[in-house]
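for ur thesis appendix - Acetyltransferase EpsM. copy paste whatever u need, i formatted it the way the template wanted (i think)
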Amino acid sequence: MKVMIVGDGGHGKVIQDIISGFHTIEIRTILDDRYSNDFFQDGKMYGPISSFDTWWHPNMKVMIAIKDNQERKRIMHKLGLSTEKYLTIIHPSSIISPTAKIGHGSVVMANAVIQADTVIGNHCIINTGAIVEHDNDVCDYTYISPNAALNGMNLLGEGVHVGASATIIVGKKLGDWSIIGAGATVIEDVPNQCTVFGTPAKITLPNNL
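the 3d part is after this line
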């Protein structure tokens, strides 16, 4: 399988490392706006994101390897590809229940755990060592940071960012584009577009999207 990676920052490097462990997947193109021109190096084509139409072909899969949730969504809409054209990547050291579902364009990183009947949407990031317990519903473009823990039966709206080592207790709703600060403990629902910090987590400010 031939793959194009969109994003060559820190998150993109981790994605490339994971893919390198799969002998059936070959990275052919890496696009990032840090590059102003197209060039060929180490068997791969590099260039700005505006070169997408030049180097993509229908037999390729695409991974948007960008950490920022809003930017990931923006690029997905800009590329205009059908959902099934996006690659889903699951690190072999992760533990995924056979009843869990992982959406297109999402990545599950090393030592992450996703338990029974959890649904992960499209273009999500489940980062290193994150735990997503049973019956969670995680909507598109959500980012679960390293060592964060979601207990069972939570609903995470679109574009939620759960910070490193944060904990969400059972049965909470995190509104669209909410941000959970690193180390926070969420014991109540979080409204749309709000940021919470602390233990227990308190709303600090609305997000400006």
